[in-house]
Protein backbone atom coordinates (compact mmCIF):
# COMPACT_ATOMS: atom_id res chain seq x y z
CA UNK A 1 0.00 0.00 0.00
CA UNK A 2 1.43 3.38 -1.01
CA UNK A 3 1.84 6.16 1.52
CA UNK A 4 -0.77 8.94 1.46
CA UNK A 5 0.42 12.24 -0.04
CA UNK A 6 2.14 14.65 2.32
CA UNK A 7 -0.05 17.35 3.80
CA UNK A 8 1.24 20.88 3.48
CA UNK A 9 0.02 24.43 3.05
CA UNK A 10 1.68 27.03 0.86
CA UNK A 11 0.97 30.73 0.49
CA UNK A 12 2.30 33.11 -2.15
CA UNK A 13 2.27 36.89 -1.60
CA UNK A 14 -0.32 39.10 -3.22
CA UNK A 15 2.04 41.27 -5.22
CA UNK A 16 -0.68 43.70 -6.32
CA UNK A 17 -1.60 44.40 -2.71
CA UNK A 18 2.04 44.77 -1.69
CA UNK A 19 2.77 47.09 -4.60
CA UNK A 20 -0.10 49.35 -3.52
CA UNK A 21 1.43 49.66 -0.06
CA UNK A 22 5.02 50.21 -1.20
CA UNK A 23 4.95 53.91 -0.33
CA UNK A 24 4.32 52.99 3.30
CA UNK A 25 7.70 51.28 3.49
CA UNK A 26 6.30 47.77 3.78
CA UNK A 27 7.75 44.42 2.84
CA UNK A 28 7.40 44.81 -0.94
CA UNK A 29 10.46 47.03 -0.74
CA UNK A 30 12.22 44.36 1.33
CA UNK A 31 11.62 41.72 -1.33
CA UNK A 32 13.32 43.85 -3.96
CA UNK A 33 16.35 44.65 -1.83
CA UNK A 34 16.94 41.38 -0.01
CA UNK A 35 17.51 39.08 -2.93
CA UNK A 36 20.10 39.74 -5.59
CA UNK A 37 18.51 37.14 -7.84
CA UNK A 38 15.13 38.83 -7.51
CA UNK A 39 13.50 35.71 -6.08
CA UNK A 40 10.97 36.03 -3.28
CA UNK A 41 12.16 34.75 0.12
CA UNK A 42 10.60 31.55 1.43
CA UNK A 43 9.98 30.51 5.03
CA UNK A 44 9.41 26.78 5.60
CA UNK A 45 7.68 26.07 8.91
CA UNK A 46 8.06 22.58 10.39
CA UNK A 47 5.41 22.01 13.07
CA UNK A 48 5.71 20.27 16.42
CA UNK A 49 4.08 16.98 17.42
CA UNK A 50 0.37 17.65 17.88
CA UNK A 51 0.47 20.85 15.85
CA UNK A 52 -2.35 21.53 13.40
CA UNK A 53 -2.93 23.93 10.49
CA UNK A 54 -4.65 26.47 12.73
CA UNK A 55 -1.65 26.59 15.06
CA UNK A 56 0.91 26.88 12.27
CA UNK A 57 -1.07 29.50 10.34
CA UNK A 58 -0.53 32.01 13.17
CA UNK A 59 3.22 31.75 12.60
CA UNK A 60 2.91 31.77 8.81
CA UNK A 61 0.99 35.04 9.06
CA UNK A 62 4.07 36.70 10.58
CA UNK A 63 5.98 36.18 7.35
CA UNK A 64 3.10 36.51 4.90
CA UNK A 65 2.57 40.11 6.02
CA UNK A 66 6.16 40.79 4.95
CA UNK A 67 5.57 39.44 1.45
CA UNK A 68 7.40 36.14 1.96
CA UNK A 69 6.25 32.82 0.56
CA UNK A 70 5.40 30.40 3.37
CA UNK A 71 5.29 26.61 3.32
CA UNK A 72 3.80 24.90 6.37
CA UNK A 73 4.52 21.23 6.98
CA UNK A 74 3.21 19.04 9.82
CA UNK A 75 4.11 15.42 10.48
CA UNK A 76 1.53 13.30 12.35
CA UNK A 77 2.57 12.62 15.95
CA UNK A 78 2.46 8.80 15.56
CA UNK A 79 5.16 9.01 12.88
CA UNK A 80 7.44 11.03 15.16
CA UNK A 81 6.98 8.74 18.15
CA UNK A 82 6.54 5.29 16.58
CA UNK A 83 7.58 5.39 12.92
CA UNK A 84 10.70 7.53 12.77
CA UNK A 85 12.08 5.18 10.09
CA UNK A 86 9.75 7.04 7.71
CA UNK A 87 11.52 10.36 8.20
CA UNK A 88 13.95 9.80 5.32
CA UNK A 89 11.11 9.33 2.84
CA UNK A 90 9.20 12.23 4.37
CA UNK A 91 12.21 14.49 3.88
CA UNK A 92 12.38 13.41 0.24
CA UNK A 93 8.68 14.16 -0.08
CA UNK A 94 9.19 17.62 1.37
CA UNK A 95 11.99 18.26 -1.13
CA UNK A 96 9.69 17.22 -3.95
CA UNK A 97 7.03 19.64 -2.67
CA UNK A 98 9.57 22.47 -2.67
CA UNK A 99 10.80 21.60 -6.18
CA UNK A 100 7.32 21.07 -7.64
CA UNK A 101 6.21 24.47 -6.35
CA UNK A 102 9.19 26.11 -8.11
CA UNK A 103 10.73 27.56 -4.96
CA UNK A 104 13.84 25.37 -4.69
CA UNK A 105 16.02 28.18 -6.10
CA UNK A 106 14.60 30.83 -3.79
CA UNK A 107 16.43 31.84 -0.61
CA UNK A 108 14.94 29.85 2.27
CA UNK A 109 14.70 30.08 6.04
CA UNK A 110 13.51 27.13 8.11
CA UNK A 111 11.41 27.88 11.18
CA UNK A 112 11.51 24.72 13.28
CA UNK A 113 9.31 23.87 16.25
CA UNK A 114 10.26 21.46 19.05
CA UNK A 115 11.95 18.09 18.55
CA UNK A 116 9.22 17.08 16.09
CA UNK A 117 10.12 19.79 13.59
CA UNK A 118 13.80 19.20 14.32
CA UNK A 119 13.49 15.53 13.37
CA UNK A 120 12.11 16.49 9.96
CA UNK A 121 14.75 19.19 9.49
CA UNK A 122 17.71 16.94 10.37
CA UNK A 123 16.44 14.28 7.95
CA UNK A 124 16.19 16.94 5.25
CA UNK A 125 19.64 18.32 6.09
CA UNK A 126 21.09 14.82 5.72
CA UNK A 127 19.69 14.67 2.19
CA UNK A 128 21.07 18.08 1.29
CA UNK A 129 24.55 17.29 2.60
CA UNK A 130 24.99 13.71 1.40
CA UNK A 131 27.22 13.18 -1.67
CA UNK A 132 25.06 10.17 -2.60
CA UNK A 133 21.84 12.20 -2.56
CA UNK A 134 20.34 13.67 -5.75
CA UNK A 135 19.29 16.61 -3.57
CA UNK A 136 22.80 17.51 -2.43
CA UNK A 137 23.21 21.30 -2.32
CA UNK A 138 19.78 21.74 -3.89
CA UNK A 139 18.48 24.47 -1.54
CA UNK A 140 19.77 27.93 -0.74
CA UNK A 141 19.26 27.96 3.04
CA UNK A 142 19.94 31.42 4.47
CA UNK A 143 18.95 30.84 8.08
CA UNK A 144 17.32 28.59 10.67
CA UNK A 145 14.98 29.60 13.50
CA UNK A 146 14.62 26.97 16.23
CA UNK A 147 11.68 27.36 18.63
CA UNK A 148 11.71 25.18 21.78
CA UNK A 149 14.37 22.74 20.59
CA UNK A 150 16.40 20.65 20.52
CA UNK A 151 16.26 18.55 23.66
CA UNK A 152 18.13 15.46 24.69
CA UNK A 153 16.36 12.10 24.57
CA UNK A 154 14.60 11.87 27.92
CA UNK A 155 11.94 9.19 28.24
CA UNK A 156 9.60 11.03 30.59
CA UNK A 157 9.82 14.26 28.58
CA UNK A 158 8.95 12.33 25.42
CA UNK A 159 5.93 10.79 27.16
CA UNK A 160 4.83 14.20 28.42
CA UNK A 161 5.11 15.65 24.91
CA UNK A 162 3.17 12.71 23.44
CA UNK A 163 0.36 13.05 25.96
CA UNK A 164 0.04 16.75 25.15
CA UNK A 165 -0.82 15.82 21.53
CA UNK A 166 -3.78 13.65 22.55
CA UNK A 167 -7.35 14.95 22.58
CA UNK A 168 -8.76 11.81 24.22
CA UNK A 169 -10.23 11.73 27.72
CA UNK A 170 -8.10 11.87 30.85
CA UNK A 171 -8.01 8.10 31.54
CA UNK A 172 -7.26 7.07 27.95
CA UNK A 173 -4.55 9.72 27.70
CA UNK A 174 -2.72 8.24 30.68
CA UNK A 175 -3.16 4.68 29.42
CA UNK A 176 -1.61 5.62 26.08
CA UNK A 177 1.13 7.54 27.86
CA UNK A 178 1.91 4.45 29.96
CA UNK A 179 2.09 2.32 26.80
CA UNK A 180 4.57 4.76 25.24
CA UNK A 181 6.61 4.79 28.45
CA UNK A 182 6.92 1.00 28.39
CA UNK A 183 7.74 1.07 24.70
CA UNK A 184 10.51 3.64 25.12
CA UNK A 185 11.99 1.91 28.15
CA UNK A 186 12.09 -1.41 26.29
CA UNK A 187 13.68 0.30 23.31
CA UNK A 188 16.34 1.83 25.55
CA UNK A 189 17.01 -1.57 27.07
CA UNK A 190 17.45 -3.09 23.60
CA UNK A 191 19.88 -0.28 22.71
CA UNK A 192 21.95 -1.10 25.79
CA UNK A 193 22.01 -4.85 25.17
CA UNK A 194 22.58 -4.91 21.42
CA UNK A 195 25.57 -3.44 19.58
CA UNK A 196 23.39 -2.10 16.79
CA UNK A 197 21.14 0.86 17.34
CA UNK A 198 17.43 0.33 16.77
CA UNK A 199 15.55 2.35 14.17
CA UNK A 200 13.72 4.22 16.92
CA UNK A 201 16.97 5.06 18.63
CA UNK A 202 18.30 6.61 15.46
CA UNK A 203 15.19 8.74 15.08
CA UNK A 204 15.51 10.11 18.61
CA UNK A 205 19.13 11.23 18.13
CA UNK A 206 17.78 14.59 16.99
CA UNK A 207 19.71 16.49 19.66
CA UNK A 208 23.07 15.17 18.45
CA UNK A 209 22.08 15.71 14.82
CA UNK A 210 21.18 19.35 15.47
CA UNK A 211 24.53 19.86 17.21
CA UNK A 212 26.44 18.41 14.25
CA UNK A 213 24.32 19.84 11.43
CA UNK A 214 26.55 20.49 8.42
CA UNK A 215 24.46 23.47 7.35
CA UNK A 216 26.44 26.48 8.57
CA UNK A 217 24.01 29.36 8.00
CA UNK A 218 22.98 31.73 10.85
CA UNK A 219 20.71 30.29 13.52
CA UNK A 220 18.29 31.83 16.01
CA UNK A 221 17.23 29.85 19.08
CA UNK A 222 14.05 30.80 20.95
CA UNK A 223 13.54 29.00 24.25
CA UNK A 224 12.41 29.33 27.86
CA UNK A 225 13.63 28.44 31.32
CA UNK A 226 10.07 27.39 32.17
CA UNK A 227 9.81 24.81 29.38
CA UNK A 228 9.16 21.39 30.96
CA UNK A 229 9.54 19.46 27.69
CA UNK A 230 12.80 20.90 26.32
CA UNK A 231 15.31 21.87 28.98
CA UNK A 232 16.89 25.32 28.64
CA UNK A 233 20.26 23.81 29.53
CA UNK A 234 20.02 21.51 26.48
CA UNK A 235 19.38 24.42 24.14
CA UNK A 236 22.21 26.44 25.66
CA UNK A 237 24.59 23.53 25.18
CA UNK A 238 23.65 23.35 21.50
CA UNK A 239 24.14 27.10 21.17
CA UNK A 240 27.65 26.82 22.64
CA UNK A 241 28.57 23.89 20.41
CA UNK A 242 27.31 25.61 17.27
CA UNK A 243 29.26 28.76 18.12
CA UNK A 244 32.38 26.63 18.60
CA UNK A 245 31.81 25.36 15.05
CA UNK A 246 31.88 28.91 13.72
CA UNK A 247 28.12 29.26 13.19
CA UNK A 248 26.60 32.73 13.66
CA UNK A 249 24.15 32.03 16.49
CA UNK A 250 21.63 34.36 18.13
CA UNK A 251 19.35 33.43 21.01
CA UNK A 252 16.47 34.74 23.05
CA UNK A 253 15.44 33.13 26.32
CA UNK A 254 12.25 33.86 28.22
CA UNK A 255 11.73 33.22 31.91
CA UNK A 256 8.13 31.99 32.02
CA UNK A 257 6.67 30.99 28.63
CA UNK A 258 5.73 27.33 28.16
CA UNK A 259 6.82 24.88 25.47
CA UNK A 260 6.17 26.27 21.93
CA UNK A 261 4.16 29.06 23.59
CA UNK A 262 6.63 31.94 23.34
CA UNK A 263 4.65 33.63 20.57
CA UNK A 264 1.40 33.35 22.50
CA UNK A 265 3.02 34.84 25.62
CA UNK A 266 5.12 37.48 23.85
CA UNK A 267 3.63 38.14 20.38
CA UNK A 268 5.23 41.53 19.71
CA UNK A 269 8.76 40.60 20.76
CA UNK A 270 8.53 37.18 19.10
CA UNK A 271 7.39 38.71 15.81
CA UNK A 272 10.00 41.47 15.88
CA UNK A 273 12.77 38.99 16.69
CA UNK A 274 11.88 36.59 13.87
CA UNK A 275 11.41 39.31 11.25
CA UNK A 276 14.67 41.09 12.07
CA UNK A 277 16.54 37.80 11.87
CA UNK A 278 14.85 36.92 8.56
CA UNK A 279 15.61 40.34 7.06
CA UNK A 280 19.25 40.04 8.04
CA UNK A 281 19.55 36.51 6.60
CA UNK A 282 17.88 37.41 3.33
CA UNK A 283 20.01 40.51 2.85
CA UNK A 284 23.03 38.26 3.29
CA UNK A 285 25.38 41.23 3.55
CA UNK A 286 28.20 40.33 5.94
CA UNK A 287 29.56 43.87 5.84
CA UNK A 288 26.39 45.47 7.19
CA UNK A 289 26.00 46.00 10.95
CA UNK A 290 24.02 43.24 12.64
CA UNK A 291 20.39 44.03 13.38
CA UNK A 292 20.69 41.61 16.26
CA UNK A 293 23.82 42.99 17.89
CA UNK A 294 23.72 42.58 21.63
CA UNK A 295 21.06 39.85 21.61
CA UNK A 296 21.40 36.97 23.98
CA UNK A 297 18.85 36.50 26.74
CA UNK A 298 16.11 38.29 28.50
From TrEMBL:
Subcellular localization: Nucleus outer membrane
UniProt keyword Membrane present: yes
Topology of this chain in the membrane: Single-pass membrane protein
Transmembrane segments: 170-186
Primary location group: nucleus
Homology family: Belongs to the TMEM53 family.
Name of the protein described by the UniProt record: Transmembrane protein 53
Organism expressing this protein natively: Pomacea canaliculata
Taxonomic placement: Eukaryota, Metazoa, Spiralia, Lophotrochozoa, Mollusca
